[in-house]
Amino acid sequence: MMSKGCQATRAPPNVQMAALYLNHVLDDMPVETDVFTSLSYFLPLFVLAGGEAWEVDGTRIRQMGVTFDSASDQPTSARSAGRAGAAQVGSQSS
Fold first, then answer.
1. Whole-number Å distance between alpha carbons of 42 and 75
2. Domain span holding position 77
3. Burial class (CB in 10 A: 0-12, 13-18, 19+), 2
4. Which of 25-39, 40-54, 56-70 has the lowest mean pLDDT?
5. Is residue 15 situated within a structural domain?
6. How many other C-beta atoms can be found within 10 angstroms of the C-beta atom of residue 32?
7. How high does pLDDT run on average in the chain?
8. 7 part of a folded domain
9. Angle at the Cα of 85 (from 84 to 87), degrees rounded to 5?
10. How many domains does the chain divide into?
């Protein structure tokens, strides 16, 4: 099972969407369907999963450096959001 529900979002007339967002209940990090969604809509996807905020932009997945209380979805701390948390899907390391 990939999700427990579905959310439909539409931008108001004459407004262009800049990004998408979702909360993961079943996973602790972004999954392959998040990459597929970002690639399909040509938009970054912001994901709250496992108490962490993530950005999925095409094939790039990055931790945002903010942790959340899973019960309230409220920020509990902010870490340095450097590029150290970035990963490239499909990349090869030598």
1. 27
2. 20-88
3. exposed
4. 56-70
5. no
6. 9
7. 79
8. no
9. 105
10. 1
In a domain, 5, yes or no: no
Residue type, 86: A
List all residues 6 or more positions away from 12 whose beta carbon is below 8 Å from its beta carbon.
none
Residues 68/51, Cβ–Cβ less than 8 Å: yes
Tokens 């407004």 belong to 15
Q: Give the separation between CA 19 and CA 77, rounded to whole angstroms.
A: 23
Instruction: Quickly count: other Cβ atoms within 10 Å of residue 33's Cβ.
Output: 14
Residue 37 has pLDDT above 80, yes or no: yes
pLDDT at 74: 66
Residues 64 and 72: their CA atoms lie apart, in Å, by: 18
pTM comes to 0.70
- The amino acid sitting at 43 is L
